[in-house]
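haha ok so turns out i had the wrong file open the whole time. this is the CORRECT one, sorry everyone. sequence first:
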Amino acid sequence: MSDTALDRWISDQAKVAATRMLRAISATDLVKDRPGFGQTVVPHPGSVLASPVPASYDPDPDYFFHWYRDSAIVIDALRVARIEGLLGDVAEERLAEFVEFTLSLDRMDRDGIPAHARFREGVTPDFMRYVRDEAEIAGWTADWVRNETRVNPDGSPDFTRWDRPQTDGVALRAITLLRWWDVVDSRLHQGMQAVIEADLAFTLRHSAEPSYDIWEEELGHHYYTGLVQAEALGLGAAWFATLDRLDEARACEAGTRELASRLEGFWDAGLGFIRSRLGVSGGSERKLLDAAILLAVVHAGRTAGPHSVLDPRAQGTVTALETLFEAEYAINQDRPKTRGPALGRYPGDRYYSGGAYYFSTLAAAEFYYRLSAALATGAELPVSPENEWFRERLPAGRDALANAAAAFSRGDAIMRTAQAFIPASGEMAEQFDQNTGEQASAKHLTWSYACFITAAAARSAAKGRLQG
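then structure:
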């Protein structure tokens, strides 16, 4: 495929992705019935559905929830879509609704759980086993809203048994709103400020505690969570300084330093990659090499230094992930030379197809595009044992612009793989099967559309710098 043809496809698909993503934000026209739980859920303005398809594990999973992590990723992509001209004023309108929805969850925290205490009355006997027990509900603290993984999109609590606490989503939300701060109408600042302050305060209080990983499977200390928390506090420190609130700025700076120190412990020289988790007991060895590491670097968005695309340890980890999935997935074997590997989550994944994820694959493309942009603007590709294999895949030597072009080509190769497994309609589920390439798991995953938008924008920025 020529570059012009790939340019055209990416442009067209980005428009489809923006439209599909927007469909899941403030989807007030949709209704989800959960008769077993006695629930009829109508999304409120500002809620973000992980998938707008009202499935019930029949066989697709029920993703008709407002996940904190997913919603933060989507609202950040909404900002990118606005900047890229994919969306107009509706982007700010949806942001305003998102902020108000978040504030409504805080009011639920202040009101306390009694308003929702009779939820069990509508649950059928055969569904009672899926409901949280009374002891857990009674033990909720003042921070229970932010300790949650997700809520119903009508703003009511999720009373199903689910892995919690999970603290990465709150940090991501702070990052997202801080990125919006300078590009949005100042009339929205009051509500945004209330959310940002509360999210940063929560992160400071809980960053040292174990939480569940982004896959909601294991309790421990996770690289992804630590990095996005560190980035949130770092951005928060700078933001508080602009408001002349120096005590809060210093507290965030101290929190960032503490997290930075802890993050150093995730590098494993013997394994040759960043470990995804520490302090997890039982059955986690297979997950030490995990696409969550790649996602952490992309979502934190650092342009230089430790835990950025220029960090040789992060680069070595990307190569380890590519090598893993090249060997594990049939769709990666005997693929055309113009395509890069499709990536999943971790080795031995058994969720639905256990196959490639659009957001993992596109995050790899975005990693290379961001690296290309950095190299094209004067950064040097580090030379160290940690990224030796990574450098072998960019065979351009020490010339910065040649390396930038090689990284861009690597990103394009992975983007061509995404193209091969995205149908002509532009629809994107959560996964595509590791053997057949057929879409699997949740249909119209909102995160899939969001990550396409950000990858396409990173490509555009890199291309502009290479041509400039």
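The radius of gyration is 21 Å.
again sry for the mixup
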